[in-house]
Each structure stands twice: as C-alpha cells, then as structure tokens.
Amino acid sequence: MQVLSRSFLRLLRSSPNVTTPPAPLCRLSYHLSASPALPRRQVFPPMAAPNSPVRHVCRSPHGYRNMASGVGVKSEELGKPDGRLQLNYGDGSPAAHGDENDAFRATAEVIDGECDTVEEILDNSDSDDDMMYRIGEVDLAVDGVYPLYRLPGSRHRDGSVYKYRSAGCWRSEFHIADRSETRLEAMKLSDPSNCILLADGSCMKHQPCPMLQFFSLKLAKHHVDSGPVELYGYIAVRDELEPLLNYVINFSRDDPIVVEQGSVINMAGPKRGIELFGTVLIEYDMRIKTGKQGEDDLQLIDGVSLVDKHIPEHHVFRGRILGKRGAIDIAVSHIDYAVEANIEVLISEVYSSFNLYLGCFTSGLHEEIQLFDGIIGKPCGLKRSVVAVRWGFSVDLKFRVCSESSISADHRCSFVTNPHGCVGQEIKTDLALISVKVTWSTLP
After folding, report:
1. Residues 298 and 352 grouped into a single domain
2. For site-directed labelling of 159, which of 60, 165, 345, 423 has its Cα 20 to 30 A away?
3. What is the DSSP letter of 119?
C-alpha cells in the first residue's frame, strides 16, 4: 500500500496546477451529521450522542479542515471503534483498496488555508518529522488513541508558524503572532446584575454553551534514555471567544517538571473555560532538557492542531500529539450546554502532615481529572481549577487523605450546576479541616 506524507494532501484549489473535482469534497474522518452553524449563544437543549459510527461533515467555515473531528471514541455507549478511517471519493463513495490514487486526486483540498503553491508545499514539508499515514485507511495505535495531526507549516522552532498570515488563514483568525495570555478571567459572570431567572433555576439572559474540557495529559513515550526526563514548554488553546493563549500547562526551562514515560502531567490550567462553538486551536511547544543551553535540548512536540465541535458530545476523545522525540496523549471531551465551575480548596487546619489526592468528575462521565496530588504540611490553599459541567449534572470531588500512620480515607462532595453564584462545604478529617468553594458562571 502506498505511503505518502500528510503534506501531499495540502493541495490548493487556487493553484493553477491542481484540478479539483466538481463534486462535493469529503474529509478523512468518520462521518458527522452536517448541521447549520449556530449563532453565538443560541439556546438549544442537550442532545443525545449519536449511535451511528459515521456521519457527514460540512466544509469548515474557516477554510481549513480539522484532523481531529469525530474520528472515533471509545466508550461504553458507542462501543469500540472499527480502528480505521475511510478515505472517500469526492462524491462521498468509499475508496476501494487499490483505487487509492484516484481517491487521493478526488479529495485534494486545502486543510490550513495557506496561500502558497504546490511546489512550495512540497519544498517546505519537513518529511523527517511529518505525520505519515496510508492512503485508504489510518491504522490506530494499539491502545486506541487517535493521532492528532499537526497542521503543516506550524512549527515554532523554525518560525514557520508565523508565516503566510493571509486573510482566512488559521494563523490570522487565531492571532498566532500575538503571544499574549488570554485576558478573560474565569467567573466573569458569577454575580451579574441583569439576570432573568426562570423557575428551574436557569438564567434567560446568560445561557450555557458548548465547551471543551481537558481531562488529562500524559507523556506517552519519549525517545531518550530510559528513566525520567525533564520537560518544559507549554500546551495552550485558542478559542473563538478570545483567540489568545489559554495555557493548559506552561513550564519554564528554569523550572521543568520531571516525568516518566506513561506518567500523567499535572495540569495548571486552563485559566478559564474553553468555548467550543466552532473550532479550538491547540498550540504546543515542549522540549526535553538535556544540556546547559537551550539549543542542546531535544524537541518533544512542536506545532498546532485543531479540534472542533464535531467530536462526539459527552464522551472522552483520546488523541496523540506525535513528535520526533516522543508523544503526548491528551484526553478531552465536548461538553455541550455547559457552565463553568471554579473550584477552590482551602486547607484551613492541619493536625498532622498528610498526603492529599484530589480528583474530579464532571457531567456524569467516568473519566477522572487530577486536580492535586502532593503532601500537605501546613494550612494552605490549592490552585484554583476551572471545569466545564453540563447543565443539569454535577461536579463531583474526591479527596483521598492518608498519612504514614493512618489508613487512607476517601471523602466526596458534589455540586449541581447553577448559572451563577457560589456554594461551599467543609470536610472534617482526623488530619485536617478542608473547605471547598465552587463558584458558577456562564461564559461571557
């Protein structure tokens, strides 16, 4: 079977050397039911996840295609995915094995909106580190994690991510050249003055909206000597609410984290909820610290990927960001009709030093978010955490407290969604007094 670089699919309709078919173009993805674009803040009821394994997708309004849009999900409700992605002809019919070249010609399209020629695409392709996949099907990893494709020409280290800032390009629409952190804070509408409350407790003025929730980041693999490595860099998102950097993790070279292969990376972010009305851009630049100078370090992952609203709702999608020196796995979910829960934990009294693990569950999903895992020796406050919660569901917190001289004990508390306001609860243990505060807000 022929193996081609991803860059070959970046053919431009505007190029005089490329002939595009008159039939509608189909994408490399499971089919997702096409639906008209929703106006911002349109009110709609929660929708059940589709049972069909495939559904059609309309062309992206941004002029590029997202390579992580409903490509599959492993869950009890949907069952195990087939394990391959079907490449279609331009008329929507599936490409048979052996017809891959025809299928390739029928699906030539723009996937990142860049205005360069085919020759420039091939010349600029970094084939030594590019994602590779087979024409006709994409085999999944053994563990069921789907590849999260890097957009061509999106590297930070060589500066290509800042080039070709033409109108309609993802670089300009998501303000890639602006390196500022998002200015919007969480809890923006926790106590608004213009509410119109309904009998069920919802607010007519401030509605829930689709949000993207990160559940975990994991160092899936690294191609360095066995043992732990020092990582630094960032993974951030840019959404359409404000397309500036909303960091999920951000570590400086002077303060790297030590991680073993297969270990979870503690998430410090995001700073606020991530809106998912359309497309969310995931930007990343992470390196392995190996020497005294930055130029001696090894690049782990570097680039930009896209996730959009067509990933299945209320199921956990697992994607793998591949790099030359390893890979990072992400677990995310499209939480439809969601509000923002801002979780604050205060250890107000400590009677004896203890280990604390704090996990979080949201929206009825069985995937745990790790909020804290460490030693508590004196009164302190934990970092604030922002979690998307589906309206009508709850955010559930699990505290595991233990010390060398005692058996671990679990303590749980749950908070049902509200559009605004805050609620709290105290947890008394033999080792400490823990205060929990959850502040609710919709996105502005």
Report:
1. no
2. 60
3. H
Residue 54: closest CA among 38, 22, 77, 30: 30
Q: Are 334 and 321 in contact (CB under 8 A)?
A: no
Residue among 51, 73, 67 nearest 318 (CA):
73
> What is the rounded CA–CA span in Å between residue 234 and residue 287?
9
Which amino acid, one-letter code, is at 375?
Answer: I
Boundary residue ending a domain (336, 354, 374): 336
How many domains would you assign to the chain? 2
CA distance 333 to 68: 12
Task: Examine residue 46 and say whether the peptide bond preceding it is cis (omega within 30 degrees of 0).
Answer: no
20 assigned to some structural domain: no
Token pair belonging to 189:
């509408």
Between CA 86 and CA 311 the distance in angstroms is: 17
Q: What is the pLDDT of residues 405-424, one digit of tens each?
A: 888 899 999 999 999 899 99
Residue 3 lies inside a defined structural domain of this protein: no
Please check whether residue 289 is in contact with residue 230, taking contact to mean a CB–CB distance below 8 angstroms.
yes
Three-state secondary structure of 52-92: CCCCCCCCCCCCCCCCCCCCCCCECCCECCCCCCCCECCCC
- Give pLDDT < 50 ranges for the chain: 1-65, 67, 70-139, 141-142
The predicted pLDDT at position 19 comes to 38
286 within 8 A of 233, measured Cβ to Cβ: yes
What's the pLDDT at 138?
43
Residues spanned by the domain of 401: 337-441
Q: Are 92 and 34 in contact, with CB atoms under 8 Å apart?
A: no
User: Would you call 124 helix, strand, or coil by DSSP?
Assistant: helix
In this structure, the answer to whether residues 331 and 411 fall within a common structural domain is no
CATH code of the domain containing 244: 2.60.40
**Cα–Cα distance, 226 to 130 (Å, whole number):** 24
pLDDT of res. 49: 39
Q: Which neighbouring-strand residues pair with 171?
A: none
Cα(208)–Cα(341) distance, integer angstroms: 12
- Residues 6 or more apart whose CB falls under 8 angstroms from that of 395 comprise 341, 343, 360, 361, 362, 387, 389, 414, 415, 417, 438
Per-residue pLDDT of 123-139, as tens digits, reads 344 443 444 333 233 44
Kindly state whether residues 327 and 224 are assigned to the same domain. yes
DSSP H or E stretch at residue 258:
strand 257-259
Kindly give, in sequence order, each residue whose CB lies less than 8 Å from that of residue 271, ignoring residues fewer than 6 positions away: 181, 182, 184, 185, 186, 246, 247, 386
Strand partners, 403: 406
- Taking the C-alpha atoms of residue 312 and residue 70, their distance in angstroms, rounded to an integer, is 6
Give this prediction's pTM. Answer: 0.72
For residue 289, tell me if it sits in a domain.
yes
